[in-house]
């Protein structure tokens, strides 16, 4: 039994003719007649008296057609509801965002978003990448903002922007004298890292080719980029920082990389079945429109994966 077959018997009942019903459904009369007969054979009930003119409906057929109308009406209601859900953004949504993005991204658009869409509310939680992905898959949160790619088949990634890696070095460290940093210049000497669990830590180690570095050789492991930068301000150490973390900071302690410039890709992520397409688009537009002009896609780069 198919919805198409139900549609055929309802239209045949409406039109009183297989020929007229076929024209209404944009199929040939033989096609419609064959599908109606298949349905009758499947359910063991004759719906139409084919030898009578005009076409008549059996008593049991009347009941089947009545049920078919109800089912098609429900499907139409569901379709309209789905379309409305697709376009609606009202409601409460839980958003997970990784710590190395939260304090730089959220102030950019939350205030304006709340003014423009007062009936849309966000419950926002900072989460490390592993926990964020787990919460998204279990539907404990609706939307994530983090660094991609994740390579999860059931998660959809909507890229926002590419953010450059920069070096923040104390004036006493050997990197301070460089005009631009080469990847080969990055060593464990004086390197400050975020604590385990942060994707930016893993990316830093990958970038520095220090994935097997011993914990004892790390000068300090902090809980935030700001903490690491404050420590750099006080001694010989250095750390890698995302571009947005120093957007309000003018200092000769900030060093750029030689090309190709390492970047991280920042994306909105949702489960594949997330229905609020309009909401995703609005969040994406507001974030990208309000970002500083220097944050943009770089043509000559390579992406540092987790």
- Give the termini distance in whole angstroms: 48 Å
Low-confidence blocks of residues? none
Topology-level CATH name of the largest domain: D-Maltodextrin-Binding Protein, domain 2
**Bulk shape:** rod-shaped
Gyration radius over CA: 30 Å
- The run of helices and strands is HHHEEHEHEHEEEHEHEEEHE
Helices and strands, with pairings:
Layout: H1 3-15, H2 18-25, H3 29-43, E1 48-49, E2 56-57, H4 59-87, E3 91-97, H5 99-116, E4 120-126, H6 129-137, E5 143-148, E6 155-169, E7 191-194, H7 199-207, E8 220-222, H8 225-234, E9 238-242, E10 254-255, E11 261-271, H9 277-290, E12 301-303
Helix pairs in contact: 1-2, 1-3, 1-4, 2-3, 5-9
Structural description of this entry:
- With 306 residues, the protein is α/β, with parallel strands linked by helices.
- The chain is built from 9 helices and 12 strands.
- The protein has 3 domains: 85 residues, Winged helix-like DNA-binding domain superfamily/Winged helix DNA-binding domain (Arc Repressor Mutant, subunit A), CATH 1.10.10.10; 102 residues, D-Maltodextrin-Binding Protein, domain 2 (3-Layer(aba) Sandwich); 100 residues, D-Maltodextrin-Binding Protein, domain 2.
- The protein is 41% helix and 22% strand.
- The strands form 2 sheets. Strands 3, 4, 5, 6, 7, 8, 9, 10, 11 and 12 form a 10-stranded mixed beta sheet that branches.
- Strand 1 and strand 2 form a beta hairpin.
- Helix 1 crosses helix 2, helix 1 crosses helix 3 and helix 2 crosses helix 3.
